[in-house]
Amino acid sequence: MFIEHKVLLKYNDYLCRANIIERLGEHQFAVVTLDHIYEDNVIKNILDQKKYYSEQVIAEMDSPFLAWFPSIQNALDDFLDGE
Q1: What pLDDT shows up at residue 79?
Q2: What pTM was estimated for this model as a whole?
């Protein structure tokens, strides 16, 4: 089971939302997706991004593949370094 966290940040001059999950009871965090919040065609972009996010969370539940960290900041730093 996971707890869901969302963090807003500015990345590459875009407003973005990092979708982070936390393993319940373990205090381990992983960034699942980084969504760009576009001004044009907002509804379509949000729906597409939510579908991808959901697919990634289900995949993690079935077969773990995400990198886990002891804090949200560590998880974000690692994810953004890899972008």
Answers
A1: 92
A2: 0.78
